[in-house]
Amino acid sequence: MPMDDAGRSRTEWANLIDEWIFSERDRNILKRRLLDGLTYKELETEFNLSIDRLKRIVYKSQNKLFKHL
């Protein structure tokens, strides 16, 4: 889901991610996926993690973030 479709600015989403996602790595992954629109393949190259691991991180981080909206 593109974050700008949810009625918040990119800056607002970035601030929310910074506030509720405590792992720096997970924050960076979530921002690159949701705000920058990178594919899991691109994230795999950038973060040197498997696509399955990246999907788990994004799913877990999204759930945590959306609970606070």
Which characteristics define this entry?
69 residues; mainly alpha; Arc Repressor Mutant, subunit A; 70% helix; 0% strand; globular
Note the topology.
Blueprint: H1 10-20, H2 24-35, H3 40-47, H4 51-67
Residue share in β-strands: under 5%
Subunit arrangement of the protein: single chain
Radius of gyration: 11 Å
Number of strands: 0
The top-level CATH class is Mainly Alpha
Q: Provide the CATH topology.
A: Arc Repressor Mutant, subunit A
Number of domains in the coordinates?
Answer: 1
Q: Can you tell me the overall shape?
A: globular
* Count of alpha/pi helices: 4
List the helices and strands in order.
HHHH
> What would the average pLDDT be, to the nearest integer?
92
Largest sheet: none
Helix content: 55-70%
Describe the structure.
It is a single chain. The chain is an all-alpha fold and 69 residues long. It has a single domain, classed as Arc Repressor Mutant, subunit A (Orthogonal Bundle). 70% of the residues lie in helices and 0% in strands. The chain has 4 helices and no strands. Helix 1 packs antiparallel against helix 2 (24-35) and helix 2 (24-35) crosses helix 4 (51-67). The protein is globular, with a radius of gyration of 11 Å. It starts with 9 loop residues before the first helix and ends with a helix. The model has no long low-confidence stretch (mean pLDDT 92).
